[in-house]
Amino acid sequence: MELNLPLDAANSPYPQLFSSLTLGRRTLRNRIAFGSVFSGLVERGEVTPALINFLANRAKGGAAMLVAEPFGMWRLVGPAAQGRVYGQMNLDGFRRLADAVSAHDSLLIAQISEQGRGDVRAARRGGAVAPSALPDDLSWTMPHAMSIDEIREMTDDLVLSTIRLQACGFAGVEISAGHGHIVHQFISPWMNRRTDRYGGSFENRMRLLDELAARLRRECGPEFIIGVRLPGCDGLPDSIDWGDSALIARHATTSGSYDYINFVQGSQAWTLHHHLPDMHGPRGPYIDRIGWLKGFSNGVKVASTGRILEPVQAETLLSDGKADFVMLGRTLIADAAWGMKSAQNRDADIRKCVSCNNCWAVSIAGGPTQCDNNPRVGMSEETDWRPSRTAAGKRVTVIGGGVSGLEAAWVAAARGHEVTLFSNSAELGGRVRLFSRLPGCESISSIFDYQIATAQRAGVHFELSHQATASDVAGCRPDAIVLATGGLFCWPEQLPRSLYDEGLVADMPTVLRDLVGRSSRIGGTAVIYDMDGTEMTYAGATLLADLFDRVVIVTPVECAARDQATVKKQSIHRRLMEKNIEVITWSEPSPDSRFEEARFVHRNVMTGRQGAIEDVGLFTYATARAPHNELLPVLRTVCPNIYLVGDARNACSTMNAVQDGHVTGCNV
Q1: In a domain? residue 186
Q2: What is the CATH number of the domain that holds 655?
Q3: Using an 8 Å Cβ cutoff, are 78 and 115 in contact?
Q4: How far, in Å, CA of 288 to CA of 302, rounded?
Q5: What's 385's DSSP letter?
Q6: pLDDT tens, 373-428?
Q7: How far is CA 77 from CA 159, 462, 652, in A?
Q8: What is the pTM (predicted TM-score) of this model?
Q9: Domain check: are 476 and 547 in the same one?
Q10: Measured over all CA atoms, what is the biggest interatomic distance in the chain, rounded to whole angstroms?
Q11: What is the CB neighbour count within 10 angstroms for residue 304?
């Protein structure tokens, strides 16, 4: 069920954000645009109902303009996960997509985005092309240097595909000339070493973009919106910095081809993580720089982007003249109704983006876009969703106050069930609350903050600081039990268990609970045995770095954060290096360790060689998590209808834990 309250912009507390905006000859009903994000919802080159839901829900939720993800618009076939435009005989899916967006008085824009030599994964790719035969900075892909004829052929294909999308009802196109994509590669002297008319001088390096934009304007007409994503600062040597970006903006906007521009950071290199600023940095880190670049844009409308999470942020930057509109990506993935709720002065109802970048990680890995704080991404009923009430209310007992249990509890209660939730702790949120108290992780509290507020409104009864027993649960006379008691890190088998039993060694969550908020230094060396690989472990390591003289991570695999997507891995490794945290790879604890002598011995799993770390003041471990569900056998005697969710079922991410709880709350 969706609430569908009227969007009364006239009475909104954000008058700038909800004022209209003219782009070229088109008018947007407000100043919220959904930026292009890869959804993973295309199948075999075809637009799917899930992709239509995904974009239409964000139009319905208040975005006045939406930039679709990159489609296959060039004869050099892109990934199968791209909607295919070039050479596609049947474009009905694109027509349905444009119709679904325009039905909500929103404009749909396509994006021209070709990879060239670049890749966001550390894997070489065959058949790549680029302005010059230079290896990609991230994947080491070696491309073929394009000939003049191939450049013209690419331009022809992109223009033809744009014309086809215009016929399908698309209102415009955005050229991606940043992010290390092929147009960026032509503009950057670091990536373009040509000596012909497409290389060398600044004007020559801009030629591809200039010619493409001029042809699009000529072929598609004045009513068609043309925007461009320009590189702000890509962070590469002898490439494009903020000063270069100002020159690029001034040059591009003198042509009269563009209705808007925006600026993006980083490249498909070691600066990829600049593209998606995460929770460990400030909110809106690029707002001031973009505001400065606006002065070089010759009056062309400018969008601001990059970790704009709150409507008050957007209102302030618009009021200050730092941009003409905001382009939100992850923010609108987290809540499709961000605009609607902002206009209705319902900020507290927004499921906020926590800037974890897991949405990006999942889609780049080949799955559909998902979100830690929005378990309904891509579903038909997503925008401002509330569950339909059931005709037959039940008594539901939830054991565990983490994000999986909270999600199940509020959804079940909102459906009309009588829900009691038991929590060992006086505070709700479980391990995620501890995560939120670590350096740079405060924003993840938005997950349980929303759940708690919604559960309270739905009438969930909380029993806090109460370790539930079978007798307690039986007293609730439950028709269903949700067991959400989490998981426990497994003891490192290389070490004697007596170290744990005697309280000499504790797992990392236990250690962090004791040390969060401590300001006085401890000194010595802290050693972390890492078989977890999650962001919480490395955030915990940075906390220890503020308390100990030395921090060493020991892991039995090839690197820290092995399983994280590149954009997250880069950010994690940068923070570890900034804190001088050492990482010893391919190693595990040795039974020769002597903690009573402050001596930890690590053993290389490949060679068997051992090394020692002295002056060890702390040894802790973050390993695989086993379900903590010892109550399960006795609970089966109380009620046969038991649901295990989150880590109590099997170890999972925060994203999966929230999803698990949501599905259970809908079905219990």
Answers
A1: yes
A2: 3.40.50.720
A3: yes
A4: 13
A5: B
A6: 999 998 999 999 999 999 999 999 999 999 999 999 999 999 999 999 999 999 99
A7: 16, 55, 35
A8: 0.95
A9: no
A10: 82
A11: 28
